[in-house]
Amino acid sequence: VFPSFSITGISNCGKSKLVEYMLMNTKLPIVLINAYEDDFKNVKCRRIVEIKAIEKYLDYLLNEKDNEHPILVIFDEALTLMSYKNIAKKIHTLLTKNRHKKIYVVAIFQELNKTIVPFKSLFTARLTMRAIQVSDINSALGTTIEDYKPLKNREFILLSDDIYWGKTYDV
To answer: For residues 87 and 81, what is the distance between their CA atoms, to the nearest angstrom?
Structure first.
């Protein structure tokens, strides 16, 4: 089990749908942060979208004692949250403490590089879908992919304990 997971790819490549299908099969309580109203319609969860409410919730997570029961926190459109320095700093801190607090984090980005997200290495598993350039995929994963062939819609590369290639399907 990976306590933190990033998913990266261009718009409309299937990131949110992939996460939605994953969430439909979990028994963990889910908190969905910064998600569009049209996304994740089939997921029963708490939603937090206002910037001040997001910051307050992150303070709560960071300042509370370790959770007795695990929770799953999803950051949709995480790239936009990086422009709020306080929120970016709190997400960074959360990623350093989440395993001990039983908080599983999934962050969905359109782009993931060290300039924008200097703590990207704290994501213990990284999945990338379609990108404009191979350098975007290498940056998101944090490694160079040998024998790379451009990804089609719904195809992905996952870096965890190894490198895996896959494809999502309609359920």
So the answer is: 7
Instruction: Enter the tokens of residue 16.
Output: 């949110």
Sheet strand arrangement including 103-109 = 46-48, 30-33, 71-75, 103-109, 4-8, 125-128, 155-159, 163-167
What mean pLDDT is reported for the chain? 89
Residue type, 80: T
pLDDT value at residue 69: 84
* Residue pointed to by tokens 């995929």: 137
pLDDT band at 49 (very low <50, low <70, confident <90, very high): very high
Mean pLDDT of the 86-95 span: 95
pLDDT given for residue 1 in this prediction: 58
End-to-end Cα distance, the chain:
23
- How would you classify the pairing of strands 30-33 and 4-8? unpaired
Residue (of 24, 4, 126, 158) closest to 74 by Cα position: 4
